[in-house]
Amino acid sequence: MQFSELAVGQSAERSHRITDADIRMFAQVTGDDNPLHLDEATAARTRFKGRIGHGMLSAGFISAVVGTQLPGFGAVYVAQSLHFRRPVRIGDTITTRAEVVELMPADRRLRMATTCTNQHGKVVTDGEAVILMPEESG
After folding, report:
1. What span, in angstroms and rounded, lies between the C-alpha atoms of 53 and 89?
2. Which of 111, 112, 113, 133 could be bridged to 3 by S-S, CB 3.0 to 4.6 A?
3. In angstroms, rounded to a whole number, what is the distance separating the alpha carbons of residues 133 and 7?
4. What is the tens place of the pLDDT at every residue in 18-46?
5. Is residue 41 included in any domain, yes or no?
6. Number of domains in the chain
7. Backbone φ, ψ for residue 99 (5° rounding)
8. How far apart are CA 43 and CA 46, in angstroms?
9. Domain enclosing residue 87, as ranges
10. What predicted TM-score, i.e. pTM, was given to this entire model?
11. Residue 92: which CATH number?
């Protein structure tokens, strides 16, 4: 998609059901092996009363929407604010939505509201992204 094709209010979303394998692979790739994410017995003694997914896993879902759907190929993340509102657990279905809220044509940037909700419609992660678009092509 080119910058000239974007409009305030455009949005895209995708959903993903969280599995034990997702959490374990994320821990392996990032090196974040906090027992809160990987060890049920330890996690059961925390305020969460059980294992939770990494907050940055839901942030990765935002990256997937931005990079593959809206605006898609060629878009470059330049900033992302994140607020982790609720834990994500194995079995949750997380729906990630990114919506264009501002266009900045002078430097081909856009600001997007980003939200991840669980299957109960509760926000688990939200924030804003700033995206740089490539030069327009022919």
Report:
1. 6
2. 133
3. 13
4. 999 999 999 999 999 999 999 999 999 99
5. yes
6. 1
7. -130, 135
8. 5
9. 3-132
10. 0.93
11. 3.10.129.10
